[in-house]
C-alpha cells in the first residue's frame, strides 16, 4: 500500500505538523511513502525520502516564462549529499511569510491564491511524479487556504487514490473571530472549501472528540478520532526528591494566539506567592520571538524567565527536568473560538515526560475539556483558579507525584503509539481493500 502525504509546508520534525506526520507514519516502508509540499524549505525527518516540491517563486517564473515548468522531484538523501545548496530562497520565503502574517495577511493570501490560479503547477513534472509513484492513499492535513485543496483533487483525479483528510484545526467556524470584512469573506470561502473536501473525501479524521462530534453533525458524515501518540510501554516514575528547592514549572510551545497573556497571568500569581516565600519558578521556552509587551508580561523578576528557543531534540530533557509541565490556552474571546476544537499535540509530549501537567485555559476548549474529563492534569479555568491550584500544590506537594502518575496513565489509555499506528494502518487497508 503506497501512501502520498500532501502538506503545505515541508515535512519537518521541528514544526507541529511535521512532528505529527512522523508520529503517524514512523515505521512505514520508505519505498512506499512520498510527500508533496508547497514551499522552498527542505524536509527534516527520518520517515520519508521521496519528495515533490512546488515553490511560489517557480510559479511566478512560469507566468513570465511560458516554457518553464514548476515542480521538482528529489530523493532527500541523494539530494543533500550531491547538492551544495544554500537555503537563501527558504530564508527569504520565511521572512516574506512572517511579514505578511503581521501585515495585511488576508490580502497576501488572495495574492497567493491568484498566483496558484495562473501559475503552471498542474504540468507534466507533477504528472510524471504521480505516474511513477502510483499512490493508493492520499493523506492530507485539512488546509486553511484553497489552492492545496485544488492540488489535492488534481492528484486524486490523476491517480484515483483514496483521499483521507486529517482535521487538526477548526476551519468551519466563520463568525465571532473578529477581523476585517475581508477576513470574514476569507473564512467563508475557507469553510466552503473545507466542507466540499470533507464530504468528497473517502475518510475523515478529527484531532479531538469535541471536533469529531461537532463536525459529524455539521457535515453529516462519519468522522473518526486520531490522536498523536508516544511510547508509554516503559513506566515513568517521578519522585520529588529535591523538596528543598523551588518547584520548577516549565512551558515549551507557542506563545502566539494570546497564550503569552495566560503565561503572564500565571507569572503574576507566582510573583505574589514568591514575595512571601520563594516556592515556584516558571521557565518559558518558545521558538517564537516575543514582542516587547509579551516579554514584559511573561518574564517577571522573581517569578519567571523567557528562555528562548530550545532544539526539538532537547525538548524531552527540558520537560524531564521540570517538576510540573504546563499547557496553556488563550482566554481572549477571538482566540477561544479559533482554538476551541483543537487538541495540542504538545499535551502528549507532556504526558510522556512523566511529569505533573498543569493546564490553564477556557473550560470549553477541547484540550482543557479532555484533561478535566480524564483527570489527567491540575486545571485552572480562570485567574482565580490559578491561585487555587498553586495553593493546593503548596499545601500538598504529593499532588505533583499523584498527577504525574495520572498523566502517564492517560497516555497509556489513549495515546499508546503502537495502538494508534496499528489502528490507522487497519483503517487504510480496509479503505483500499473494500472500496
From TrEMBL:
Residue ranges of every copy of the Spore protein YkvP/CgeB glycosyl transferase-like domain listed in the record: 304-418
Any one Pfam family match given in the protein's UniProt record, by short name: Glyco_trans_1_2
Protein name from the UniProt record: Glycosyltransferase
